[in-house]
Amino acid sequence: MVHVPLTFTITTLMWIKVIVSPNLIEAADVIYMAFTETALVVKILSAWRFARLLQFMFLEWQTNELFSLKNTSEELIWNRQFKIFKIFAFVYIISSLSIVILSFISVLYMGVHRLPFTYWTPPGWEQSSYFWYLCLYDVISMTITCTSNCTLDMYFCYLLKHNAACFRMVSLRLEKLGYSSEDATTNLKEIIIIHNKLQSMSSHCERIVSYPILSQILFSSLVLCFSIYRLQTISFVETPFDFLSVFQYMWVMAAQIYLPCHYCNELTVESTALNTAIYDCNWINMTAAERKTILLFMIYLRRPVVLRAGHFFEIGLPIFTKTMNNAYSLFALLLNMSDS
Predict the structure, then answer these.
(1) What is the pLDDT of residue 338?
(2) How confident is the model at residue 111 (pLDDT cuts 50, 70, 90)?
(3) Which residues does 126 contact at the CB level (< 8 Å), separation at least 6?
(4) Rg of the chain over all Cα atoms, to the nearest angstrom
(5) Largest CB tally within 10 Å, which of 179, 299, 307, 339?
(6) pTM given for the model
(7) What is the rounded CA–CA span in Å between residue 214 and residue 309?
(8) Which residue windows are transmembrane per the record (predicted)?
(9) CB contact set of 333 (below 8 Å; sequence gap of 6+)
């Protein structure tokens, strides 16, 4: 419940600041962060709503014998994939926290009192003795919200990555089907059961990440647009830390869009690869009943797993490219409006 006095409150105060701002330049100083905080609120509400479903999914992965790794080669492939995931998560979280640190440092080198992340305050409070209390609230709130945002992003990405890795294990087992002394019929039945489980898990993932990713994609174009616009108003010579903070923020926001798109795309690719994997098995030497089952399974596999954001559009790398193009188009429009 720490998000109620911190995340939800500071998000509301940021939007009040946007509404009462007299011009576009002052609004741009806060609106990019207000959109980010709003997307975080959607993620928090989604995590609260589907808490029991998340608990069920992790319990299923941990306790169900169907998801256990069978040999050393599977363990090596599994560990290699999640080692890369851990590196991405570490770099992403450290880069995000560095934005908060740079913003706080930049305030110390300014001649006037200014909050690191602007939000609405009663008139005159920023230039009074209340400033350091406001600054302390800003430091605590933004540190917690930044950490929460990063961890929720990687939490959702982990769900997608885990499901994609499970599909990868199914592909490996399909390729080896019929080449060992084990009963091919038993192994094939087990693979079909695992695949049905993974299809169900993918549906659960879509329910959990659908609206958080939708809000992230919708707001990210505006966030990147106003971040670039604000960057043009900051002098690197006068306020280097402030400039670096906004510049770093732009790249982190791009990563925040890219990561879920990448892992959703990976989930689709791994589920599509099952068709090739089942064709590579030793189906020629199998019995007629086994070949018939494989044929029916191949027909079923023709439809890969594709996640959708709020039932509006498919999540994948093409939507990341479109979001970046939209951000540039909005920035060009905003620049023309400000010049005129």
Answers:
(1) 59
(2) low
(3) 113, 114, 115, 134
(4) 24
(5) 307
(6) 0.84
(7) 5
(8) 87-110, 130-152
(9) none
pLDDT of 331 over the 80 cut: no
How large is the greatest C-alpha to C-alpha distance in the chain, in angstroms? 85
Secondary structure (DSSP) of 138-169: HHHHHHHHHHHHHHHHHHHHHHHHHHHHHHHH
Long-range residue pairs from 294-300, CB within 8 A, at least 24 positions apart, any chain: 294/188, 297/188, 297/192
Q: Are 205 and 160 in contact (CB under 8 A)?
A: yes
Q: Are 180 and 93 in contact (CB under 8 A)?
A: no
Q: Which residue in this structure is represented by tokens 């174009």?
A: 221
309 beta partners: 313
If you ran DSSP here, which 8-state letter would residue 3 be given? T
Find residue 314's DSSP bridge partners: 308
What is the structure's pLDDT at 237?
Answer: 62
Encoded amino acid at 193, one letter: I
Question: How many residues are given for the chain?
Answer: 340
CB 67 within 8 A of CB 166: yes
Reading the block at residue 224, the tokens are 């990147």
Q: How far apart are CA 275 and CA 10, in angstroms?
A: 49
Q: What is the DSSP string of 25-77?
A: HHHHHHHHHHHHHHHHHHHHHHHHHTHHHHHHHHHHHHH-GGGS--SHHHHHH
Contact 97/146 with Cβ under 8 angstroms? yes
What are the helix (H) ranges across the chain?
Answer: 9-20, 24-49, 51-63, 72-108, 131-175, 184-232, 240-279, 288-300, 317-339
The mean of the pLDDT values for the chain is 80
CA distance linking residue 156 with residue 307, whole number of Å: 13
Q: Please state the rounded mean pLDDT for residues 163-180.
A: 83
Q: Which tokens in the block code for residue 334?
A: 């905003």
